[in-house]
Design brief:
about 210 residues, 5-stranded antiparallel sheet, Glutamine Phosphoribosylpyrophosphate, subunit 1, domain 1, about 35% helix, alpha+beta, about 30% strand
C-alpha cells in the first residue's frame, strides 16, 4: 500500500501483497502491513483487509486515501442494503457495485486493486477488481500488489482442490511471508482472515506463528 503523491499517480500501485483463496468451507484473505512512499517505509501498521459484514471481506492494494474511500463506500452501501433487504450484500452484488463506481470514475480513477471474498447461500466466492472497474470471478486463488508474482508462484504449487479453510490460512500466510522475502515493498506483519458459515475471523501475531515457521 502506498501513501499517494498527487504528482506521481503512476507510482501508486507499487507496494504490497494481498492474496485470496477459495476453500471447500469458506474463503481466506491474507495481507501484509507495510505502507510505502517511493522507497520510504511510511507505516509498518497499515490496514489492508477489512470486514464489511460477517459474510464479506475485502483487501486493498494501492493508494491509502482511495482504499479508505472504497471501504467506506462499501460499508455504507452494505448497511443501506441490510436495512432494505434484511440481509447483507452478497460478494457478487458488492463486486458489481464497486465495478460500477470505479468504471464511472475512469477520468480520475481510484488507484486500487481489490480482492473481495465471501459467502452467499453457502457458495464461496472470490473476485478481483482492477482500478477501472474490470472484475473477474476467481475459482481458486488470486493475488495483487508488487509482491503478487512471488506469491502466485507459491500459490500455484501449494493450492489444491477441496482445500479446507484451516489449510488455506496456512497457505495464505506463507504466500505473503514468501513475498516479503523478495519484495521490499511488502513487509512487517501478516494478517489472514477466514470467512465461513460461522462468520468472519482474523488471525494475527501468535495465531500465525505456527503457519509461517516462527
Amino acid at each position: 500500500m502506498v501513501l499517494i503523491d498527487t504528482d506521481k499517480y503512476k507510482e501508486v500501485l507499487k507496494g504490497t501483497t494481498t492474496v485470496g483463496l477459495v476453500c471447500s468451507d469458506g474463503v481466506v484473505l491474507g495481507v501484509d502491513s507495510r505502507a510505502s512512499f517511493d522507497t520510504f517505509i511510511a507505516s509498518k501498521e497499515a490496514k489492508k483487509v477489512f470486514k464489511i459484514d460477517d459474510n464479506l471481506g475485502i483487501t486493498i492494494a494501492g493508494a491509502v486515501g482511495d482504499a479508505n474511500e472504497i471501504v467506506r463506500i462499501l460499508k455504507v452501501q452494505n448497511e443501506i442494503y441490510k436495512m432494505a433487504e434484511n440481509r447483507p450484500l452478497s460478494p457478487k452484488s458488492a463486486t458489481s457495485l464497486l465495478s460500477i463506481i470505479m468504471q464511472q470514475n475512469k477520468m480520475v480513477p481510484f488507484y486500487v486493486q481489490v480482492i473481495l471474498g465471501g459467502i452467499e447461500d453457502g457458495k464461496n466466492q472470490l473476485y478481483s477488481i482492477d482500478p477501472l472497474g474490470g472484475n473477474l470471478e476467481e475459482s481458486a486463488y488470486t493475488s495483487t500488489g508488487s509482491g503478487s508474482p512471488t506469491a502466485l508462484g507459491y500459490l500455484e504449487d501449494a493450492y489444491k482442490k477441496e482445500l479446507t479453510v484451516k489449510e488455506g490460512v496456512k497457505i495464505a500466510a506463507k504466500a505473503v511471508a514468501i513475498a516479503m522475502q523478495r519484495d521490499s515493498a511488502t513487509g512487517n506483519t501478516i494478517t489472514v482472515v477466514s470467512i465461513t458459515r460461522d462468520g468472519y475471523k482474523e488471525y494475527t501475531g501468535k495465531d500465525l506463528e505456527k503457519y509461517i515457521g516462527k
